[in-house]
Specification:
Structural class: alpha+beta
Low-confidence stretches: 331-341
Mean pLDDT: 85
Number of strands: 9
Helix content: 40-55%
Largest sheet: 5 strands, antiparallel
Order of helices and strands: HHHHEHHEHHEEEEHEEHEHHHHHH
Number of helices: 16
Length: 420
Amino acid sequence: MTAAPNDKREVLGKIKKQCSRSLALSKFSDPGAKDEKNNTPRRNYFTDALEIAPATQGVEGWQAWISSMFSQDNLLFGRLLGRMALHLSGSSMENAGILLDRYGLPYIPGSGIKGCARRTLIAALREWVVEEKGAKAPGSPLASLYSSYDTPAGLLSDILLLLGWVGEDFKKDSDLVFACGEEWPVTKDRALAIVQGIIRLRLDHKGNPDTSLQGRVSFLEAHPIKDGYPKVDLELDVLTCHHDAYYGGKRDVARDTENPTPVHFPVVAPGITFLFTIDGRDPRLVGLARQALAVGLNVFGIGAKTAAGYGWFDTAEELNKQFLSALPMPSKVPSSAMPRPTKIGDYDEEAYLRFIFGPIVLRPNERGAFMQVHLPKLKLPENRPWLIRLIEEAEASKEKSMKKTRIKPWYVELKQIAQC
C-alpha cells in the first residue's frame, strides 16, 4: 500500500468519512506521523480508520460461493484465539500494515496458508526422522500427520506431490534436507521413486528432478464468516521501543535513560471464525493438506508475531462439525474439487496413476506390466469406472506417443468397451 499524491489526497479528503476502511488505510496514510507525549497523530489516524464499519455483505457472498462450489471435505473452520497481525511490513505506515479486502474485512492470503501447512508438514517429518529416530511420538500433535505412513519416504513423496517443488528444495540448505537430517539421501531417493511411479519425472546426474513441479493442492485465501462476527473486528495494538537511539545507531550502549517510543499498529481482533478452502483432485492429498493446516494453525499460528501468541486458532473437530452442519450441500461440485473414489474394484487413485495412466499416457516404454497384468483387469466390470476415466484422459492427452497408441488394437478394444 502506498500513500496518494497530495492533490489526490486533497480531493479524496472531502469524502474520507464515506470511503471504505481499506481505502482509508491505504490512500490516506501519513508515513511521517509520529506520536509524542501530547500529540498522537499516528494513533489518531488508525483510530479514525478502524472506526469505519466494514461492508458485511462481503462475508455473506464469500461463504455462499464457497459452500456452493466445494465439498465439505475441502473446508476447514478456524476460530481466532488471540489477536492476529498480518502484512505488518506491507504499508507506507512503518510496521503497521494489515490485509483487508475491498469490503474492509480482514483476510488471510493463500500463500500464507500454504506456508503454514508446509511448515507443519516439515516439522512432522523432522519429528519422525530426526527427533524420534524413526519412532512415532505418542501424544504429539504432529504425530497424526505421519502415523498412517509406513516409512518417512511415503510422507516425503506426498509432501512433494502436495506442495510441488523447485530446484532449491533439493539443495543442502533447504527445509526438506533439514527435516530429514542425515537420512536425506536415502529418504529422498525412495520418495522420488514413489513419485516416479505416479508422474513422469526425469532425474539429473545428482538424482534430483530436472524440472519444477506445481503442487497438486491449492490453498485459497481465507475470509471470515458471518456467524459470530464481532462489532469490533480490528483493534489497535502497541509496541513500545525503549532504546530508539541505540537501535538507530546514535548510541553504542542501550541504557534505560531514553524515552520509550510507542508504535501503534492495527491487528485482527480475537473471536473471528475464518473459512479455509483447499482445492485438489486427489482426496488423499486434500485430506493431508487439511489436517496439516488444522494442526499448524493450532500449534504454530499464522501471520506475524506468532512467538508472542498472535495468530493462533482453534480448529477442533467439534467446532468444524458445528459450522459444517449448518452449510448447504453444494448442488454441483466442480471436477477440480470432486474427490476421487478411494477404492473401486482393483484400484485406488494412486494405483490408477501408477499402473494404468502412467504407462499408457506418460511412460509408453514401461507398458510391459500393464499389458500382462492390468490390461485384462481393466476389462472387468468392477473396474469400468477406471477404464472410462483412462479413455477420457487418454483422448484428451497431447502427448506425442498417444497418436500411435490410439490406433493400437488393444486400445481400440478398450475404447469400445468403455463406450458400451
